[in-house]
Amino acid sequence: MRASTAVCLTGVTALIVSFVSFAPAVKAARGQSSPSGQTSSQQPAPPGGERKPGPAITFQVPPTPELPNNGLGESDQPQIPGQPWRVRDVNRPRPADVTPGKHFGDAPSDALVLFDGTDLSRWTMSAGRGASPATTPAAGTPTWKVENGYMEVTPGMGSLVSKERFRDFQLHLEFAEPPVPLGASQYRGNSGVIIGGRELQILDNYKNPTYADGYVAAVYGMWPPLSNPSRPPGEWQTLDIAYMAPRYEGDRLVRNAVITVFLNGVMVHDNREIQPSAGRGGAARGVPPGGGAGPPQAAQAARTPASAPAADQPISLMGHPSAIPGNAVRYRNIWVRRVEIEMPTETSPGRGQ
After folding, report:
1. Three-state SS across 177-203?
2. Fewest CB atoms within 10 A around its CB: which of 50, 83, 191, 268?
3. How far apart are CA 110 and CA 139, in angstroms?
4. Tens digit of pLDDT for each residue in 101-123?
5. Lowest mean pLDDT among 9-18, 43-52, 126-135, 191-200
6. Distance (Å, whole) CA 309 – CA 295
7. Cα torsion through 85, 86, 92, 98, rounded to 10
8. Would you say residue 260 lies in a domain?
9. For residue 86, is it within any domain?
10. Which residues form the domain of 250?
11. Strand partners, 335
12. Which contacts of 118-123 are long-range, i.e. CB under 8 A and separated by 24 or more positions?
């Protein structure tokens, strides 16, 4: 026992000696005098005074060679395949300056705010799904409930449709499922975002499984999300969408729509191609890119007002038959940015002709 005690005390003594040896170094790093009298360049603050600044730091501009057109581009470089522009083209339009929102989810300076928590002035009403002929108001009169900075699906009142129409855009919205889970599968907090006649699913899938292409953020009936990052019922969730509309030559479809989606900051669709849906927003006209058979005849009926195939489309928030009192979805902070997407002028090298 004495031998063990001696070993233990020796270890403790060594630890104390190490700490005492380390302490001056800590004091020196904090700008305090060490036993040897050395101090850091940062002087300690006198009692009740301000800390004296350390030595000034001078920044130098890096050596810069003379640049063509003051660094704004050139005109004699090779042309970029599939584009009308040259590499570093001096004549190419430059990106517009955009001031981002102060906090994550805030609208940037070039956004159109569709709902700021106060009114539905930028929306109109459509019968949509879940509308009751006996209670549906006059066409165009929005009747969803607005309170406490959010709007809520009103049972039996149909869907909201934006007055503005869009082609290529970025959309941000936030939604919350009912705090008390009611129903199961598709009958728990069901709504949707309709773009170009296609539905991006809104659903409470927190510990509530359903069929794969009907999950929250699914391109309904076509593409399941890559994952299910749902938050618990009652918590606010974010949905961010980048959408490129289909391209037509006359009535002939030459390029399908493409969508990228983030749910609660998690990517759930990456540059996903969306095929047209019969009867929705006129998107079924023409033939699919590359020819072949048209869209399937079993596609669902239209849920937004029909438009010419190449026309800009509204954004719709869907009412659903399950939106009974206590099972209705809430929305807030909805904004959209129009974007201009450059399309290739020809097939790029390495891709099919």
Report:
1. CCCCCCCCHHHCCCEEEEECCEEEEEC
2. 50
3. 31
4. 999 899 999 999 999 999 999 99
5. 9-18
6. 14
7. 100
8. yes
9. no
10. 112-338
11. 113, 172
12. 118/146, 119/146, 120/144, 120/146, 120/151, 120/160, 122/162, 122/163, 122/164, 123/160, 123/161, 123/162, 123/163
